[in-house]
Design goal:
This protein has 293 residues and is α+β, with helices and mostly antiparallel strands. The protein has helices at residues 2-18, 30-36, 38-44, 51-64, 73-85, 115-123, 186-196, 213-225, 233-241, 280-290; strands at residues 96-103, 106-113, 128-137, 141-145, 151-155, 165-174, 179-185, 198-199, 202-203, 245-247, 256-258. The chain has ten helices and eleven strands. The strands form five sheets. Strands 3-6-7 form a three-stranded antiparallel β-sheet. α2 (30-36) packs antiparallel against α4 (51-64) and α3 (38-44) packs parallel to α5 (73-85). The longest helix has 17 residues, at 2-18.
Length: 293
């Protein structure tokens, strides 16, 4: 069913391209397209953000990843406009990532919200006092427990005595005094990465960058506790688009949000189920519950 839908969508896109609807790359590059769409990006951005700066950051992403230039303009601009509406930046801020992949022969951009993006969106609810991600290294004093009397103790050792990373965790403190935390061991994080970000034996997407492993581990911890945290319109929009293709060319246009399909991946983080829309961490939690873990 998913393959048939993907094939139908690919054919529709080819038909649209033949009518000139998405064939803008024949006359201008995506870099030029982004520049020409600065007014649309300005309408999408919160008032405090500079559209010219945002355009430069997006153009830098195109320079860093040439595979993005192979993607359909509607999927690329959809990711750019979605990030803008959420007030999140790609690039150095690492709040969202444009990830290229190929779906039934059509190269598209997958919109990925990073850990820093989720943290920024959660802070804006006004109900979160702080979000603290940490990494536990060999040599640290560390202990924790879940249950009725939850606790977490982490005393880092001196830098020159620090060993390999053993655990990752995120503690979220609410303005009402409540708190929540999730801990994952290094092997747990690696199993999660291998299950959802490996294609044909190759790690893909943000996980493929060794410098991003820690941030992606924190994101995984945070998303495991997100269901119990305050929400907002922006958080719900991020939920609906994270790990998906968002097709549109204008912020006022109703976006076509397409669940992720990992067929013929170019470079992507596998985070969702194309048929059910169930995210990777939701599926993992469900399957663990079914196994009684």
């Amino acid at each position: 069913m998913a393959a048939d839908q993907g094939a139908d969508r690919a054919r529709a896109q080819v038909d649209a391209a033949s009518k000139g609807e998405i064939a803008t790359t024949s006359t201008k590059s995506l870099r030029e397209l982004v520049e020409s769409q600065e007014s649309a990006i300005a309408r999408a951005l919160p008032g405090a953000m500079d559209p010219a700066r945002y355009v430069r950051i997006v153009q830098n992403e195109l320079s860093k990843n040439p595979k993005l230039k192979e993607c359909t303009p509607r999927s690329f601009m959809g990711a750019v406009l979605t990030g803008a509406q959420l007030g999140l930046e790609p690039g150095p801020m690492q709040q969202w990532y444009p990830v290229p992949y190929r779906n039934h022969g059509v190269a598209e951009v997958q919109f990925i919200v990073g850990y820093r993006g989720w943290a920024a969106l959660s802070h804006r609810t006004g109900q979160i006092q702080g979000i603290n991600p940490r990494t536990v290294f060999k040599g640290d004093e560390f202990d924790y427990a879940y249950g009725l009397d939850e606790y977490l103790i982490h005393k880092p050792c001196e830098d020159d005595k620090r060993g390999a990373p053993l655990y990752y965790y995120v503690v979220t403190r609410l303005t009402n005094g409540g708190r929540n935390f999730v801990v994952m061991s290094r092997p747990e994080v690696e199993r999660h990465r291998d299950r959802y970000a490996k294609k044909n034996g190759t790690i893909v997407g943000p996980w493929a960058d060794k410098d991003q492993f820690e941030a992606m581990a924190w994101k995984t911890c945070f998303l495991k506790q997100k269901a119990w945290l305050p929400s907002s319109i922006d958080v719900m929009q991020a939920d609906a688009t994270d790990g998906h293709v968002v097709n549109r060319m204008d912020p006022e246009e109703e976006p076509e949000v397409v669940p992720f399909d990992d067929d013929e991946i170019v470079d992507a983080e596998i985070v969702g189920d194309a048929e059910t829309g169930e995210s990777a961490w939701e599926r993992e939690e469900r399957e663990n519950a079914e196994r009684g873990e």
